[in-house]
Protein: FAD/NAD(P)-binding domain-containing protein
Amino acid sequence: MGRDFVYVILGGGVAAGYAALEFAKKGVSHGELCIISDEPVAPYERPALSKGFLHPEAPARLPGFHTCVGANEERLTPTWYTKHGIELMLGTRVEFVDTRSKTLHTTTEFITYKFLIIATGARALKLEEMGINGSNAENVCYLRDLGDATKLVKMMRMCRGGNAIVLGGGYIGMECAASLVMNKINVTIVFPGSHCSKHF
Ligand SMILES: Cc1cc2nc3c(=O)[nH]c(=O)nc-3n(C[C@H](O)[C@H](O)[C@H](O)COP(=O)(O)OP(=O)(O)OC[C@H]3O[C@@H](n4cnc5c(N)ncnc54)[C@H](O)[C@@H]3O)c2cc1C
Structure:
């Protein structure tokens, strides 16, 4: 089965959310634009995941940090996309792009487009890519998406008073370490340089 769109945004992060907002402002017609994301929720502000989402008191939760129309204004919830006739294909991974026939192959169907916007962002480096096994262990957490942050919150609740190692001394590592301390967990940060955030 295949479907046809004028515009397809591949990826469901902030770039996709704000691009959709600009399309809506310019008056895209219903059914012209589709966002395909392998995440299960509409685009959200990823920075919340290493900050408010990890707080022990009054933590940030969706829909409170979906991408938004403007500061403190309407959030782009799934209802907003429906209202503007923008198709949200969530939990859908694009496996292959054929740019000659302008076709995307997803896990379940193929989609044709006139214009493709690639907004696939970045991902966390896995332990295995550093020559270490263990990514799937229950007590190993990454912090890139909502699923990762949800697992981390669960671990923090189970391990109050325990010890954690944060691998990475950049902004996200340091914010994560601060949140772990707020959750009463002792933290050791491991990083290769002489001090944290040496690139900044
Ligand atoms: C925990 C954390 C905290 C951060 N804090 C800050 C901050 O304080 N300030 C700041 O400026 N930046 C921060 N960042 C960085 C910021 O979030 C990124 O720059 C931003 O997310 C980039 O947005 P993006 O839409 O380009 O890509 P991404 O957010 O990476 O989104 C890419 C999307 O594409 C999807 N995707 C990828 N491949 C496929 C595929 N084949 N099929 C379907 N979908 C696919 C992904 O699942 C994802 O939804 C933080 C990042 C993280 C992880």
Notes: The chain has a mean pLDDT of 93.
